[in-house]
Amino acid sequence: QAHILFKPTLDQQKKNSELDETLLNGDFVVRYDVKREATAGDIQIVNGYFVHYFAPQEMPVFPKNVIFVIDRSGSMTGRKIEQTRDALLKILQDLRPEDHFTFITFNNKVVEWKSSLLPATEENVASAAALVETLTARGGTPTTSAYKASQFLRLVSDEWERKPVTGQTERSVSMIILLTDGQPTSGE
């Protein structure tokens, strides 16, 4: 059963002299969806881009150890760095106190935020959010050969070895979140 209520304004009801003797003109389109369980996740579509949020039901939530690798090169100027900052701020809000995180930013230089993974306390998340707010895009991203790329990934993966996580359990999940446009701006 569905109830559709259409209440056009006076301007919508005005007659258009180029049309027939109708009081309303144009198509009346009704879009609807059926009520269903939200087990398939949520999809958000904006300006031709989409994101699919999906989280399985009834699964335990494991603590996360996250290294954010953030491109801050010149090709990220404008909307790209804004979207990166917005995404990071949202992700930081979603971290739980048992999660641990740090940042590595790169352009023609690689910069580590902290020397160890930090627990996602209110204080650490606020400090990280302050850093994210200051992220700017400048510098180059050299076109990397396979060798240089492997060195960079080695640096990131070595973080797990060099940065012990206090309170880390066997059931924690380690991940790398790479935020980049993938555009080299200098080099071969």
TrEMBL record:
<feature type="domain" description="VWFA">
    <location>
        <begin position="65"/>
        <end position="188"/>
    </location>
</feature>
<dbReference type="InterPro" id="IPR050934">
    <property type="entry name" value="ITIH"/>
</dbReference>
<dbReference type="InterPro" id="IPR036465">
    <property type="entry name" value="vWFA_dom_sf"/>
</dbReference>
<dbReference type="InterPro" id="IPR002035">
    <property type="entry name" value="VWF_A"/>
</dbReference>
<protein>
    <submittedName>
        <fullName>ITIH4 inhibitor</fullName>
    </submittedName>
</protein>
<dbReference type="Pfam" id="PF00092">
    <property type="entry name" value="VWA"/>
</dbReference>
